[in-house]
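Data availability (excerpt). All sequences and predicted token strings are deposited with the supplementary files. A representative entry, DNA helicase, is shown inline so that the format can be inspected without opening the archive.
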Amino acid sequence: MLESVKKLIQFYDEVLSMPHRQEIARELRDEDDLFLLLLYSEMIGIPNPVYYYTLELYPYMIEQFHDWHLRMGMEKTPLSGIRCC
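Structure token line:
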């Protein structure tokens, strides 16, 4: 009896959170895209006052950048200074 109540509560919790999962995933993806824009803004001509500090993040962000340009439909990297493919 206790197991069936736990399953019912778990199912109820999943039903309530399911519509929000997509929203949360979309918000996280948008934040990641904004962070990538800030990180690579100097390469596309937007002045970045913290460019020196963002240089240190390139080795850690190169895989995310590769996933981003593939998700945007670009087979090769759009920036000439980054070789991720």
